[in-house]
Fold these 2 entries.
Entry 1:
Amino acid sequence: MNVITTELLTKRFGTFTAVDRVTFEVRRGEIFGFLGANGAGKTTAMRILCGLSKPTSGKAIVAGHDVATHPDHVKRHIGYMSQKFSLYEDLKVWENIRLYAGIYGMRPAEIKAKSAILLRQLEFEDGRDKLVRSLPLGWKQKLAFSVAVFHEPRIVFLDEPTGGVDPVTRRQFWELIYQVADRGITVFVTTHYMDEAEYCDRVSIMVDGRVEVLDSPEQLKKRFRATSMEEVFRHLARGTTRS
Amino acid sequence: MKTLRFLLEKEFKQMARHSFLPKLIVLFPTLMMCLLPWAANLEVKEIHLGVIDRDHSPLSNRLTHALEASGYFRLVAFPESFPRALEGVTSGATDVLLDIPPRFGEALERGEGTRVFIAPNSVNGTKGELAAVYLSAILKEFSVALRAASSPVSPAPAVEVATLHRFNARLAYKPFMVPALMVMLMMLLCGFLPALNIVGEKESGTIEQINVTPVGKFTFIAGKLIPYWLVGFAVLTYSFLLAWLFYDIVPVGRFGTIYLFALLFVFGIAGFGLIVSNHSATMQQAMFVMFFFIMIFVLMSGFFSPIKSMPGWARAIAAFNPLNYFVEVVRGVYLKGSGVGDMTRPLLALSSFAVIMNAWAVWSYRKSR
């Protein structure tokens, strides 16, 4: 079953076509890597799928709803973590969890119980009353991700979630992603790190606003006779006309 | 509505935890109410008067004494010539000159008319104008008294104008300015803070996270408005208290009337701040736009100069100025004891202001573009 279907999805800003007739599907429960060089149109495409940006033409169905006509239906079933991992820095950890859970209509008692479980799983019970501002970047990212899936969305969108942290922290972050995928939540993730691309079930690579290839990392490596995703990516990025 | 509770909780926590905001909310009204009523004062006293007496008669002497006794003037110079007198004006030592011509007393005694010359220094227009007005009033009194004394049998049928200043008998400035300062305060706090709020969330990126949730536009804006509403009410109450403590100024009318209108005004001005915030990309931009509008609001509000003395086109613009109505209301309640029934026009104007601003605020908040 597909949780995301796009058909000739296009977004133009003036004469610039950021996303150019993109068509693809994302299956339920998979970890879908959305790759591309800077300026290839990944973030724009992702923002359309989240209902933050309206497509110029084409169609996208996310969690069973059209993003252009019913963005608020879509928003009820998705989680989102932006590059800026937008937690409120001047709120405490538990307050951030409570706020977002509350916004998605969870009851206070339910929020309380689930927060306790979450913080135990993260081994972060000490951090409950800390201001987010005071946390190290790695923790902020883990927390932002946990908040984004707290209301059990069908899909979670991650926009370069692991920027700026060391490989060990990144690996820990991916452990969280696997756990979430095991729960049946579809993970849609953009990344710059090609080692992360290897962790995905399937990856698409965007070049100049178009989805150039879409397959599992193994198949892609076989097709381009490459030993790593890094090589696949470089091969494709050579064709880019945007810098 | 359940969502609103969580949003409000968040706003209040952020406000309380802010390093500067709670201090500002207390300090700002305190400073403004303690300082400005003394500064924003247009009462003119201690006018420095120079008299060029070319007559030196008993009558010219009497006139000079009458001026001194009025309480408005202080005689600072008796220059012998007009050019010398002007030097005093140029240097700023003299505010107004009275030139008494030769044979002034003689002419008056013979019952003939005579002319004196008044030259106010109008660098400060208000002061100069008032000095001239006060001087001519005293001159008139002087001439009427003189005429009555010289012909007791048939006094000239002089028309006397008696002025009774209602509601503020002594034309004191503080009861006039203090209520207006309260309005200023509410506008600055409840206009600027919301203006910086949403744009602040844009800068930190948190607004994206909110936009990707199913929070409704209306709920979001209500979550932003209500805290400032409460801040506005707290500040208003605090300034009532300060006005009473420091200046012994209490409204003739009801506090309830002011609160009712404040409800509408703060709702409107906070909505206005949110509109600016919605349309701005950065804090600087929001600040600049707010400054621009607030300057216009203040200067066209009747705060300093009466709207009735503005040209027609300016009055037409002032009719759209919410501050103008709220100043009128607060002054009305404080000085005249006006009730809601006396102020249907401001009530209507402020209600429409509040509705329009907030409809616009909700409309201009875009969850997607």
Entry 2:
Amino acid sequence: MADLFDLASRLTCGCSVSGFEHGQEEALEYIRDKYFDEMRREPAGSYVFVRHAKKPGYPRIMFDAHMDEVGMMVTQILDDGFLRITSIGGLDTRILPAADVTIYGKETLYGVIVSTPPHLQSGDAMSLPKVDDLMIDTGLSKEKAEELIPVGTPVSYRFKLTRLQNNCICGKGFDDKICAVAGIAAIEQLINDGYGGELILLLSTKEEISRAVVAAVYELQPDYAIVSDVCCAWVPECDKDAKRKTTVGDGPEISLSAITDVRFTKRFIEFAKKNGYRHTVCVEATSTGTNANDIPLVGLGVPTLLVSVPLKNMHTYSEVVSLDDVADTAALVAGFIKELGGEHNG
Amino acid sequence: MINDLKTIMTTLGASSREDAIGDKLSEMIRPYVDEVCKDPLGNVIAVKRGKANDPQKVMFCAHMDEIGFVVTFIQDDGLVRVSSVGYIDYIAASNHRVRFENGAVGVLVPEGKTEAKDLRQEKFYVDLGVKSRREAERKVKIGETGAIESTLVKLGGKRYSGRPFDDRIGCYILVEAAKLLKKPENDIYFVFSVQEEVGCRGSRTASFTVRPDIGIAVDVTPSGDVVNPGTNLCVKLGGGAAIKVKDNSVMCDQALVRFITDLAEEKKIAHQTEVLTYGGTDASSMQTVAGGSRAGGISIPIRFCHSPNEMIDMGDVEACIKLVAAVAEAKRI
């Protein structure tokens, strides 16, 4: 089995704010060299990894996980050197004040989002901050900040990756790079088992803010797409919402939706049941909120299913997932790909 | 030059009714390019062929539609109800003249005693100055479109007030840039797109036809130097061509942003960085249609966008013309 913690660390340590996923090149080359024959960057920014077919007669299967994450961008440098920001993707402003951030300017710099202490707050200051009102403190003067941090510089949560208990890990950017980890682990397993078909890994760009994935899929036109993204796991606050039942540790969640391919998804669920893979099923009637909304309609159409890794604290610097869920997702996907390729005998 | 701009500004063309403005822009650009055609949606696609053996396809796109209204209902008393085409700020549009496709003019007014906070589409009607439905029907028909009357007025310095600068000023820039082209290396496509204001629809089919390697939207961007812009906007009127990093529809290709910025530095063209926290442009469709392209934007700073009195600075427009031409003449992007 691939070292999931190591892969998660390699993929989440660099800059990968939507549209600025350039901080991952080292990790991408590592993945290419270890598992694939070829890697290319599509014009819109997605990365395609291909392992060529070793034998004829297999369907072309694509695994998609998006490689971008939510973040911020500098819009203005104030007279005292503080930075004004805007959000890229959906940020929860409640968790931003006092957050550690990394600023990818001409140099990589550390900063902290300003938090007004209670002593200095008055009246309605306790209300939810707007991202337009937040500032980053770098300790730099205006002149130095202007020199090192041009307007338009991306900013992300500071990289941190820790092990919690019970094989859970905590960090930033698991949405959606933990699913990329699952996909790579699945592919490693397929390689080890001598799978002969073509394998395509799409690490797609800008999922948090656009439909850029469609451009990459247009050229690939795979026979099947397996999309993997994170889903919000149950937390005690969810008790009121009976719809949300999957818990971290329950294994992958399979989406049943009118958007994705019903026959393909049912086959996946049947396969999981028959072979005893842990999983849950979630109903997302008309929208999955993921790339699985767009991929089915590209070109002549692509049968698509969505399998999700349960995650807590989405879009924060302390996202939590279970590596057991990641491993189970990988095993399920690998097993199913073998079945699609006609190799499964179990 | 100003006469050309006036022609481009005063030709009515709400989204989906771009035939007349498309014809005028075709004629204006034809002498400076190799081919001009119209696609089924009405996009005007002009191309100047490059001399390189292996040319890149560079597509500049400015939308030629404008925001406006469509007639939904004609009352017995001859008053006309309309619905928005694109985003209309009704506080700004209130009490302005509307001109329809066949030339009829009326005044867009709110029902009496409507409080400012309630100024929305349903409260408005157009008074054509007629007395009955029959009379009104001779002037406008249900389904016909119109827009706030076009104006173009010179203010102090190089600044102009009027409408619709969004995005006829972009169309003007493409025509003027085409005039500057000598023998480009790459295939340069100038596209005047339709239906941008209702969701960047025209640029989708145009991008599919062109399949550009590089896609650059030439559109307006709100400037932050107004009293209380409401959000952090770094662009300033008169600050030069604005090179787009993002808006709400697109994260631009980083290498392209750097390339355009370096080119502006090298050619000493006034420029600034644009980070727009809302809004969208044709760059989004160029980036993601078919196999996708490396996309970006060269934007014209504008104040009071989508109002009857938008404001621009001709210094910025001149910078944009030079920058578009410089990118079009570049060897390899």
